[in-house]
Amino acid sequence: MPIAMLPLVVWLAIAQLPSAAVTGEQRGLLLSIADAHDQNRAGFAFGSIEFVCWKGASDSLEQAKRGDLKTPYRADCRYVFDGPNGLYSMRFTPEDMAATKVNLSETQSRGGLVSLRLLTNQKLTLDEFLVSGGSGKPPIPGRKIEAGATTFYEHSEVPFSLGFPNESARLMSRIIRLALEGRGGARVKEVDEDATLENRKVCRFTLEFAGSEETYNADLERGAIPILHRTVLRSGDTTDEFLDDIRLVEGHGFLPYSAGWRSQGGGTRRMVITAADFARKPKLNEFRLEFPEPISIANTAENLDYSPRKVWDLHSLPRRGSKDAAPMGPMPNASSGGTPPPILEGEREAPRPPYFLIGGIVCAIAIGVYAWRRHRGEKS
User: Fold this and answer.
1) What is the separation of C-alpha 27 from the centre of its chain, rounded to a whole number of angstroms?
2) Within 13 Å and on the Cβ side, how many CA atoms surround 53?
3) Is 362 exposed, middle or buried (0-12, 13-18, 19+ CB in 10 A)?
4) What are the C-alpha distances in Å from 118 to residues 81, 103, 368?
5) Could you give the C-alpha distances from 137 to 94, 132, 133, in angstroms and in order?
6) 11 and 212 in contact (C-beta within 8 Å)?
7) How confident is the model at residue 104 (pLDDT cuts 50, 70, 90)?
8) What pTM, to 2 d.p., does this model score?
C-alpha cells in the first residue's frame, strides 16, 4: 500500500455497464452487511495499537497469509485514535531504507522504503516522510502541515482501517452503498449467501464498477468482516486483501489481529497487532509529534512558516501575525506535492501499490523540501 503525496489512481465511470439486477432481498442483505460492518467498527471509537508491518514478496496467497515472505523488511508501527484525532507512525531501519534505494540522480531515486509519521485533527494534517540519504547517511526529511485529513488516511496502513471515517474510500460498507446506488453503471454482479471459505460460512458478493470488480467474503458471524477481498482491474491485474486471527474484544466487537495484501506480481505486505488498548481514552496531549531538536514547519493551508519547536501540536499552532508565524515564501515545484482529489461518487480507487514502489516520488519531494529549507537557512 502506499509517499508524501501519493495520488490515488481512479477509474472514471465513463463506460456504461449493464444495469443492476439485484433483487430486493439481496439489496436488503447487502445493506444489512454494510450496516453490521459499520456497527462493528463503531465499537472501536478510540484506542491505541502497536503492530509490526512486513513488506516483501510471496509466491502465493497462502504464503502471504502465513507471513512466508521473500526478502521481508520490517517496520514498527503505532497508531492512536480518538474521533477526529489520529497519530500514526511507521518506522523502517535506516539500513533497510538504504538497501532498497536506487539512485537515479542527485535529486531523484527509485524504490526505497519510506518511514513516516502522521498527525491529524481532521482540519489539518502534519506529515513527516523520511527517505534514505544513502548508506551511512541520515534520512532526508520532508515535513509540512496541510489542510484536511486526506493524506493521513491515504498513507496510514492500519489493520481493519480502525478509526477511519465511514466515508473512507477503502471501506467495504461504502463500496456496497456505491454499487447499490448504481451511479456510472456500477452494479451488484452476484450474491452467494451460502458460500464457504476456509471452512467458514461467508456471504460472497461481487460488485462491478467501470474500472474494477470487487469480490468480498464477509463473515456474518463475526462483525461482517471481509476475511478475503479480491480486486480485479479491467487490465486483469488482481490484488487480494485478507483479514484473519479475528478476536472478540469484550465490550467493543470483532477485530482482525492480522491483515495483509498481495498483488498479482507477488508484492506483499502483512501486519500483525502486538499490543492493543481500547479501554483507555487517549488524552488530547498525546496527539503531537516530538523531535530531537527544534524544527520549523510550513503550513501550506495557511501559507505560513512557523518558527522552530521541538513539540508540534495541531491544537496549539502559532497564530497568524505572531512572531512565530511568518508568511511563507514560494516553494519550488509546489504543485507536484498537491493533495489528490477525493474519490467521487461512482468512482473506484485502484488497489494501493506496494509501498516500496513509490519511494522515488517521496524522495524527490523530500529532497526538494530539504533543499528549500537549506536555501532559506532554516533548520529542518
Assistant:
1) 29
2) 31
3) buried
4) 12, 26, 19
5) 9, 8, 5
6) yes
7) confident
8) 0.80
